[in-house]
Amino acid sequence: MLTLRQMRQLYSGLHPEEYWEDLICCGHIFGCDIETGNLEGFSLFSFLLICRGSVSIKYSDRQFTLNAGDLHVYAPGIPTEIVHMSDDYEAWNLNIDEQMVYHTPQLEHVVKVACFTVSQHPCPVLNLSGEIAERIRLLMVLVHEHILAKPTTYTKELLLTAIRLMCVELLNTQDNVVVKNHYSERHEKIFADFLQLVSQHFVKYHNLAFYAGHLNMTTTYLSRIVKQMSGHTVQHFISQALASEATVLLKTTSMSIMEIALRLNFADQASFTKFFIRMKGMPPKAFRKEGKL
Q: Where in the sequence is the domain holding 236, given as residue range(s)?
């Protein structure tokens, strides 16, 4: 999956100076800065607050439109497509590297809960009131200002504090703006842990049994929880992560199709090609050629 560093290299929208150590980026974006089209799965958590205009997004086979005051929440690994933007589209965008979240105790719980609660909802959007949207915007502006400012001993702590406060604000509002499914906290934790495991191990392990065993439960129980929480199967998340990684390797490296197949732990090139056609609708060689046009 694409890291923040790779996103900076491949996509426009945020300027290089709006990245902090390729772990956090935050900026004010406009329609003229963004191209429509497919964006591969990212290894990051993302918050997109629409300030003006509208944008239509296809996210994990679901399409929806965001308008001013809407906040789109993204969890790692989900393929996304920008379908359309209005001429006056304007938004604030905060992205946080996935591994930084998992290795930063001050962030891990609040970011994961704030993201996963919304991102796996049929429409992963928070419809914020004007007052709450403005508070979230101001916190993103604060993150942006700290990134642009001259680095100090406390820059990281200031960034983490502002991000944590923003996530707590979102958690405080979710009871009012998210349709509750009454999942138990245990099920939510299992689902979040499962997604983290997929992000860490999807290249080597493609089978349900590995993830169930790692979580100390039966395959049937894990399958039921994942389906209940997201509407998707366990294999869906593994396949999406593999497809995203494959497209990144095809676009950004000179590795042969066979090398990519072996890198992603497929038995041979033929099985990888069959998988890629099922996921992307074309052979990997054609996909690579199309990307160079």
A: 185-291
Amino acid identity for residue 54 in this structure: S
DSSP symbol at 18: G
> Mean pLDDT per segment of 10 residues, for the chain of length 293 residues?
71 73 91 62 86 87 87 78 89 91 84 69 77 95 95 94 92 61 71 85 94 95 88 88 87 92 96 94 90 53
* pLDDT for res 293: 42
* Torsion angles phi and psi, residue 92, rounded to 5: -110, 140
In sequence order, the β-bridge partners of residue 169 are none
> What are the φ and ψ backbone dihedral angles of 258, each rounded to 5 degrees?
-65, -45
Choosing from 177, 199, 220, the residue where a domain stops is: 177
Indicate the length of the chain as a whole number: 293
161 & 197 share domain: no
The structure tokens 């086979």 sit at 61
- Please report the pLDDT score of residue 178 as a whole number: 47
CA distances from 39 to 2, 68, 72, 74, 214 (A): 9, 22, 15, 12, 30
Here the tokens at position 69 are 């005051």
The CATH code of the domain that includes 281 is: 1.10.10.60
Residues 6 or more apart whose CB falls under 8 angstroms from that of 7 comprise 42, 44, 95
Question: Residue 240 burial (CB < 10 Å; 0-12/13-18/19+)?
Answer: buried
Identity of the amino acid at 21: E
Question: What's the pLDDT score for residue 176?
Answer: 52
Q: Cα(27)–Cα(44) distance, rounded to whole angstroms?
A: 16
pLDDT at 31: 78
- What is the total count of domains within the chain? 2
Strand 90-97, strand 24-30: pairing: antiparallel
β-bridge mates for residue 58, sequence order: 63, 81
